[in-house]
Amino acid sequence: MPNPDDDRTGARIAAHRKRAGLTQQGLAQRIPYSYSLLHQVEAGHKKASPQLVAAVARTLGIPVTALTGHPVHHLRPDHVAALVQPIREALDLYDLPTDCFMPASTTPDLAAAADALCRDVRAARLQQAAAALPSLLTELTVICRERPTTESWRALASACRSAHDVAVKLGYPDLASLALERMGWAAEGAGDAVLAAIRQYRRALAYRNRGARHAIALSMVAEGHRLLGQAEPGLERDAVTGQLHLGAAVIAARANDAARVEDHLGQAREIARQTGEAGRVHWLSFGPANVGVHTVFARLELRQFDAAYAAAKAVRPPRGWATSRRAAHLVDTARAEMETGRTDAAIASLGAARRLAPQQTRFHPRARETVRGLLHLRRQSPDALSRMAAWIGA
């Protein structure tokens, strides 16, 4: 007996397929799934997996929600594991036989899809990104092994970086580490020093927890700077250099090394004056606003709470700033407000972060810490805080 929801998803796939002028056979040839499976999904006899839905949506150029029929922002913790496992499986294909996988997309199409995936992550559409990752990673891995080009390797490195970002935001550090290993493999295949440096930046941030060996993380940052010495001068190299300094500032703050924090923030600030807002450079959001955001975080870690609050209020989000960056800043602003006695403002900032990026905020460890802190401070929790605590699991 087919599930009614699956039946409706299959019917939507059929309707959009017909609208695009494709037969079932024609659509099956464009996605990495068989005609038989597509036929059964459209008939409602088999469940449409998130990966199949994402592949169909990407092929037809429509949002995933056009096929699912419901918004994707209500991501519950019990759904996360089902989204994450296919990503892990796709990343594990890099050294396994790929005879059964037949990429149907061209390298330029896949590169465009990898770029669109970065936009989804920046927009905090985590479920949509997670659903699209397995098929994209699979096709790019096969193409890089069978018909490698610099463009395909770069697209694969980008997709692996997105897999890392999704895994971090959903709380899967082991998967994030695996994704960075594959990103390194792809960056080497592309011969791209900038991508390799970005990987070192991401690796270093995995050591930002208290108790970690921060010297190792700072060595990774230094290796990133060394790799950038091989890159062509210009905006791209400058932006990544600045981002490496911001990463080092975060790590130094965790290590309670105030002098090193100031040194790296100062260097990043000087580079940002020259680059301006360079958010489109490898989707790093580097620029004066991002320097301000990292300054807030560093001040919080150093327990300079008044300075953190002042820095938070001084940040001026640029036009088109990534939703994920804006929401993360609101979470840190809430912490600064809580630590300076502005509890009502902190609750409001957390609420704004939730409205802006619900998936990201729900799994954000600093959001959970701040909610717990507010519950401790308030003898009587207002309804907004009680609802937030129940939603976030604090």
Report what the structure shows:
- The chain has 394 residues and is mainly α.
- The protein folds into four domains: 1-51, lambda repressor-like DNA-binding domains (434 Repressor (Amino-terminal Domain)); 71-191, no CATH class; 192-319, no CATH class; 322-394, no CATH class.
- The protein is 72% helix and 0% strand.
- The protein has 21 helices and no strands.
- The chain is globular.
- The protein starts with a helix and ends with a helix.
Low-confidence stretches: 1-6
State the order of secondary-structure elements, H for helix, E for strand: HHHHHHHHHHHHHHHHHHHHH
Structural class label: mainly alpha
Please give the domain count: 4
The number of strands is 0
- In round numbers, the mean pLDDT is 88
Helix amount, in percent? Answer: over 70%
Rg value: 22 Å
Strand proportion, as a percent range, falls in: under 5%
Q: N-to-C terminal Cα separation, in Å?
A: 39 Å
- How would a textbook summarize the main sheet? none
Shape: globular
What is the number of helices?
Answer: 21
